[in-house]
Write a structure and sequence with these properties.
This protein has 444 residues and is an alpha/beta fold. The chain contains 20 helices and twelve strands. The strands form three sheets. It has a five-stranded parallel β-sheet with strand order 2-3-4-1-5. Helix 19 links the parallel strand 10 (376-387) and strand 11 (412-422). Helix 9 crosses helix 18. The chain is globular and about 80 Å long.
């Protein structure tokens, strides 16, 4: 099932139908659905598909495609000779970084192939890669021999929360929020999920072949050699340590420089650095957060319980007890998407130039929307809880007090709430009922 991929799929199919040469680069983290999308795009067209490995690729390519290209049997064993026999075809090379790992000169080889063999033909060359760092540095960067050769590039992102409604039509939105806290909209994980949520999760964790057991180790090994240090840093962040000093103290390396590790984790998009929306990028008040909710879930609930899971006596209730607290940050992400969509749909007081978070001392605001032209600010508190009349009034009053502390002199403020449920919804107060209504209407 393809959800939120139709636009990308249409764009690729249009390029495949073009009479000119196309060199298409598609990348994104593992499990994001790159292979599935390309297979869907070429399924009704004659094509060559090859999944690269870390060694023996010329031999493997020959043996796997001899049936489609019999002339390969008499060809020299190199990529240039192979592509001479594949001109005017659709050629897909999956996990292209593995070719680079096997032989770094392959990038220059492919540059020559594109420039001297394929340019001016009707060939469609599509390369896919899961190593974000390698695709950016070795394939897309200015220093790459392939720079400027691509006719199209696409970075696939995770599905947004609203697309879970299409995967699980008719499901209670609260259940979908719980699921988002595990899957983070990664198609590979979403497709494995079932409803009801707790029944599926309890069963999935106990499966010997569950993707939840070793997934993070698998992802880290693909990107890094020093897996142990990266794992300790990710665990520290998952457990609430968001500044470099707090992370160092948690992992016990007070005098070590962990900044290179943090930069590398940012490069592969496992973590992100956030700054208060009123600060500039060089602010020293930046904090580090896990960007992937599945990583957050794994370190908080799976990693610390690996022994009991392995022994078969793990109790899902041990997750239930803490999951509502965990859902606070998950719902903040969902609420931010909702607010962005409300802005796009002109359902809020105005359009906003910037959206982010704000904190100073002990004060925080979950969502801050700023219109610098009109000097208007919308502050929104996110609550994964059921609110009564007094709760709503108290939270709105608290936002009003926080607005007085923000360094935005001359700006006027609006205040709102996004809650799990609210019995009192004046003005800019929303809950899951409003969220579901917006996204269901969008589908109609």
């Amino acid at each position: 099932m393809f959800v939120n991929r139709l636009e990308e799929l249409k764009g690729i199919q249009q390029r495949l139908a073009d009479d000119e040469f196309q060199f298409i680069i598609i990348f994104g983290r593992r499990r994001i659905g790159k292979t599935r999308m390309i297979i869907e795009a070429v399924k009704d067209k004659p094509h060559i598909y090859y999944m690269a490995t870390e060694n023996g690729n010329l031999d493997s390519f020959l043996s796997e495609n001899l049936g489609k290209i019999p002339e390969l049997e008499y060809s020299a064993k190199n990529w240039e000779a192979y592509f001479r026999l594949m001109k005017d075809r659709i050629v897909v090379i999956d996990e292209f970084p593995n070719l680079i790992l096997e032989d770094a000169s392959v990038i220059s080889v492919f540059q020559k192939i594109v420039d001297t063999l394929l340019a001016g033909t009707r060939t469609k060359l599509i390369v896919l890669g899961s190593s974000i760092t390698m695709m950016r540095d070795k394939v897309l960067s200015y220093s790459s021999p392939l720079y400027g050769r691509r006719t199209s590039s696409l970075k696939l992102e995770a599905l947004r929360f609203r697309h879970l409604i299409e995967f699980f039509p008719g499901t209670d939105p609260e259940e979908l929020c719980l699921l988002f806290g595990v899957t983070d909209g990664i198609p590979y994980y979403v497709e494995k999920a079932r409803m009801p949520f707790w029944e599926w999760l309890g069963s999935e964790i106990q499966r010997p072949d569950s993707f939840l057991r070793d997934e993070v180790d698998f992802l880290l090994r693909y990107e890094f050699k020093d897996v142990g240090t990266y794992k300790r840093i990710l665990e520290a962040i998952a457990l609430g340590n968001h500044t470099p000093s707090d992370i160092r103290n948690h992992i016990g390396v007070k005098h070590s420089d962990i900044m290179p590790y943090l930069r590398n984790l940012q490069e592969v998009e496992m973590i992100e650095r956030r700054i208060p929306i009123t600060e500039n990028e060089r602010s020293r008040r930046g904090r580090y957060y896990l960007k992937d909710r599945m990583l957050s879930f794994w370190f908080r609930f799976i990693h610390r319980n690996r022994s009991s899971i392995q022994e078969g006596f793990f109790d899902i209730d041990s997750i239930r007890k803490d999951y509502q607290t965990y859902m606070g940050s998950v719902f903040e992400r969902i609420a931010t998407e909702f607010v962005i969509d409300m802005i796009k749909d002109s359902r809020l007081p105005m359009k906003y130039d910037r959206i982010g978070r704000w904190w100073h001392g002990g004060d925080e605001v979950d969502i801050v929307c700023i219109n610098d032209t009109e000097k208007r600010v919308l502050l929104i508190e996110v609550k994964w809880s059921d609110l009564h009349n007094n709760d709503v009034k108290r939270i709105l009053g608290g936002l009003e007090e926080k607005s007085k502390k923000m360094p935005l002199n001359g700006y006027s403020f609006d205040h709102g709430i996004v809650a799990r449920r609210s019995e009192y919804k004046p003005g800019l107060v929303y809950d899951l009922e409003d969220l579901e209504q917006l996204y269901v209407q969008e589908k109609l």
